[in-house]
């Protein structure tokens, strides 16, 4: 390689890396962003003339290291070392998923990584609040499907909770406000990801939004939740294929079986633990919903105007 080209190589690679990171930051694609947010760059990356001299493998290492460097720099408490024990799948989701930041009135004000949105340090210091959803799936026998979260989950591992709990992402399809379609789309996506239920078995228009809650809960000293949570109900018979990276176990429960599960959790029996959001819904809404499901009048219980602040 000529000396002049060799000397310019590190600087040129640095330029490529900076440009690529900027484009990755905008991977959600062009969307209508809220006032005050900054649109991600959309400049097309033009490779320098020497690029054909680089092997595809070395270029991939360059781009990969630029993204890894960016991700690892995000922890603010020396967490890069501690996070080395994080499951690879969960770590990828923590840094790649962009949650929707909202104010206490559910107005979109920006976005941030799943990692930052679940750090108690940032929740407390910056009051980060993100949009979430909780799905309650009941079968034709009026049994509620529960899941036990995987042991590799970063927040609340191995706790029992409702059918599916996750976040709409900062992308076009999951930001749609009309008829709560964005949240419904996100629920359909995650039910496939976590429980292997194909989208055609869960039409988005059959998810019934029943309400919204706002809560904060610590998982441990480092991680926690601060969510504005959409509560979605659906009555379907489905086939399950749980993803072990997300789900440790599943079971259907009737009302009496759920009461027994609550009793064991309260008594500390069998190491049963429940997620805090699930317990809030059980204590405040679920019995009434169950009544109306059996009567075929579930829609009458919907209240999407109120945001219930629960503790």
Tell me, what's the shape? globular
What's the number of extended β-strand segments? Answer: 10
Q: Helical region count? A: 10
Work out the helicity level: 25-40%
In the predicted model, the low-confidence regions spanning at least 5 consecutive residues are 1-82
The tally of domains stands at 2
The profile of the biggest β sheet is:
5 strands, mixed
The CATH class of the largest domain, by name, is Alpha Beta
- Tell me which CATH architecture of the largest domain applies here: Alpha-Beta Complex
Strand arrangement within the widest β-sheet reads: 6-3-8-7-10
Give me the Rg, rounded: 22 Å
- What's the pLDDT, averaged over the residues? 80
Q: How does the helix and strand content classify structurally? A: alpha+beta
Q: Mind telling me the CATH superfamily name of the largest domain?
A: Nucleoside Triphosphate Pyrophosphohydrolase
CATH topology grouping of the largest domain: Nucleoside Triphosphate Pyrophosphohydrolase
Query: What is the H/E string?
Result: HHHHEEHHEEEEHEEEHHHE
Beta content: 15-25%
Report what the structure shows.
- The chain is an alpha+beta fold and 311 residues long.
- The protein folds into 2 domains: 3-73, no CATH class; 98-309, Nucleoside Triphosphate Pyrophosphohydrolase (Alpha-Beta Complex).
- It is 36% helix and 21% strand.
- The chain has 10 helices and 10 strands.
- The strands form 3 sheets. It has a 5-stranded mixed β-sheet with strand order 6-3-8-7-10. A 3-stranded antiparallel β-sheet has the order 5-4-9. The protein has a two-stranded antiparallel sheet with strand order 1-2.
- Helix 1 packs across helix 2 (56-72).
- The longest helix has 23 residues, at 3-25.
- The protein is globular and about 45 Å long.
- The model is unreliable at 1-82 (pLDDT under 50).
């Amino acid at each position: 390689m000529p000396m002049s080209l060799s000397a310019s190589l590190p600087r040129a690679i640095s330029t490529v890396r900076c440009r690529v990171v900027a484009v990755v930051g905008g991977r959600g694609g062009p969307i209508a962003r809220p006032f005050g947010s900054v649109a991600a760059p959309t400049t097309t990356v033009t490779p320098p003339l020497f690029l054909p001299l680089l092997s595809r493998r070395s270029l991939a290492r360059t781009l990969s290291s630029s993204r890894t460097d960016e991700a690892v720099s995000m922890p603010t408490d020396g967490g890069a070392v501690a996070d080395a024990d994080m499951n690879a799948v969960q770590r990828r989701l923590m840094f790649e998923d962009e949650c929707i930041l909202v104010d206490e009135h559910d107005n979109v004000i920006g976005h941030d990584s799943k990692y930052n949105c679940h750090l108690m340090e940032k929740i407390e210091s910056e009051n980060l609040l993100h949009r979430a959803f909780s799905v309650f799936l009941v079968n034709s026998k009026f049994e509620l499907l529960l899941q036990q979260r995987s042991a590799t989950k970063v927040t609340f591992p191995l706790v029992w909770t409702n059918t599916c709990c996750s976040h709409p992402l900062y992308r076009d399809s999951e930001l749609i406000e009309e008829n709560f379609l964005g949240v419904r789309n996100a629920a359909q996506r995650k039910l496939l990801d976590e429980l292997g239920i194909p989208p055609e078995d869960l039409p988005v228009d059959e998810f019934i939004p029943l309400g919204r809650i706002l809560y904060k809960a610590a998982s441990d000293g480092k991680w926690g939740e601060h969510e504005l949570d959409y509560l979605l109900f659906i009555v379907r018979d489905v086939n399950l294929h749980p993803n072990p990276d997300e789900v440790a176990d599943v079971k259907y429960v009737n009302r009496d079986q759920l009461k027994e599960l609550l009793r064991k959790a309260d008594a500390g029996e069998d190491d049963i633990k429940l997620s805090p959001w699930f317990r809030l819904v059980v204590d405040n809404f679920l019995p009434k919903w169950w009544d109306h499901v059996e009567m075929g009048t579930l829609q009458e219980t919907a209240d999407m105007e109120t945001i219930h602040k629960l503790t």
